[in-house]
Amino acid sequence: MVRPKKHLGQHFLTDKNIARKITECLSSEHENICEIGPGTGVLTNFILKRPAVKKVVLLEIDQESVNYLNTEYNDNRLEIILADFLKTNISSLFPEKFVLIGNFPYNISSQIFFKILENRQFIPEVVGMIQKEVAERIIAGPGSKTYGILSVLLQAWYNIKYCFTVNENVFFPPPKVKSSVIRLQRNSVSSLDCDEKLFFRVVKAAFGMRRKTLRNSLKPFFQVDNIDTPMLSLRAEQLSVEDFVSLTKMFQ
Known about the structure:
CATH class of the largest domain: Alpha Beta
Helix content: 25-40%
Strand order of the largest sheet: 4-3-2-5-6-9-7
CATH architecture of the largest domain: 3-Layer(aba) Sandwich
Number of domains: 2
Low-confidence stretches: none
Radius of gyration: 20 Å
Structural class: alpha/beta
Largest sheet: 7 strands, mixed
Strand content: 15-25%
Shape: elongated
Mean pLDDT: 94
């Protein structure tokens, strides 16, 4: 069967050695694995070779790719679903926790990570290949110009590791940017010491006008006049995750 065409910002990985390296970034032998956007199944092949795997769910939004995968793979551990990850009820995929892996479409990678955050109780680990620029934002720490909303929110609940850089020539068609593989592992934080919905709002508002001080960037959304803290004279990029938790508690 003819391989599916590129769709929705996806660039198909063609290098099997890179595919193997990506799957090897998974920290341990997981039984339940969900792959986002498998395309032609180059990662799937290595996922199915992992001895502990009992169930693999492939979420693919493109019918042509689903047809191709159905002809290429015949494994009773594998379930191929025509679905959009962003619109999928995560809890319906597995009866218990599962890990997530994939070559994430560049144009929706940030949305994928927000969806992961919403379902963090089900997803203890993520290995994703994304645009290098996005990866650098996610792993950035306080004081960095690339430190932002995703940095704070993901680091609040996950330990993040930059695994390796991937060159353009291992994709078809080649993207115009380099890619990176990162791994997220749930940390020991079961809940933050603050209102978590408010925490999301504070972080997003703080970085909405990141060049301004926090007092000025938060003022349109929160009552800051009666709060006296040195943090409000700083910019959002200067605060750690713990600082944002402390700041959120002042607005509760």
